[in-house]
Amino acid sequence: MNSQPTQNDSMLPLMVDIWQQTLNWQPDEKQQEQFQQLYSSIVAGNRLLNLTRITEPLEFWEKHLWDSLRGIAPLLLNPLPITDYQLPITNPQVIDIGTGAGFPGVPCAIARPHWQVTLLDSTRKKIAFLDTLLAQLGLSNAKTLSGRAEQINQQSQDRKHYDIALIRAVASASVCAEYALPFLKVGGLAILYRGHWTNEESTDLQPVIERLGGKLESIEAFTTPLSQSVRHCLYLRKVG
């Protein structure tokens, strides 16, 4: 196996070396097949739904697959190198807030089959698409949930229910924190996927996090491996 794109432009590149070099992880054969099925299903679904503008194989690999897993890179291997925190259970409950076409939740469910992943979105057509997609991928560790985050996170069965909350840049960081932190148990981790980030934004975010019983545990800055785009991930701990 090599890391070069295949000649068939409908196939995802394998990128074995880049996976290993950047995340110290690489998909096994089954996971690679699931990534390919995910890509093919998204491209097909895009003909009926506005799922994503990113459909070219290399761009899809970087901006949807790699980016999704870069956010959970500290959780891909054991021991878990986010400060001294260790997940307290072997099958963590994970929620992907505003999942859209399934990112980052579906790649995370593929990469971590022992995670129990809930894909939350307010658009019923996208939820219906994801239900079909999960069946096609054979992902028994993922399910969908339809509704608005700010309402769902106040319901007794979902509030303080999750160990990990994932949220891409669906809104400002403060709003993302308000969506994510109420879902978490004490000790849980919210991962906010962001583009550029500044110290001023951290300062503005701090009082919001504290009001929600959280703390800003770490900020990771990185560049994407193909386009060299600047990205950040914020890790928020629920402390009370």
Notes on the structure:
- Strand 2 (116-121), helix 6 and strand 3 form a beta-alpha-beta unit.
- The protein has a seven-stranded mixed β-sheet, sandwiched between helices.
- With 240 residues, the protein is of the alpha/beta class.
- The protein is globular, with a radius of gyration of 17 Å.
- It has helices at residues 16-23, 29-45, 57-71, 73-76, 105-111, 124-137, 149-152, 173-180, 199-211, and strands at residues 93-97, 116-121, 142-146, 162-167, 184-194, 214-223, 230-238.
- It is 38% helix and 22% strand.
- The termini are far apart.
Give a short overview.
With 240 residues, this protein is α/β, with parallel strands linked by helices. It is built from nine helices and seven strands. A hairpin with a 6-residue loop joins strand 6 and strand 7.
Q: Between the first and last Cα atoms, what is the distance in angstroms?
A: 47 Å
What class would the helix/strand composition place it in? alpha/beta
Into which percentage range does the β-strand content fall? 15-25%
As laid out across the biggest beta sheet, the strand order is 3-2-1-4-5-7-6
> What is the count of DSSP helices, taking H or I runs of 4+ residues?
9
SSE arrangement, N to C: HHHHEHEHEHEHEHEE
Query: Which sheet architecture does the biggest sheet show?
Result: 7 strands, mixed
The share of residues in helices is 25-40%
How many strand elements? Answer: 7
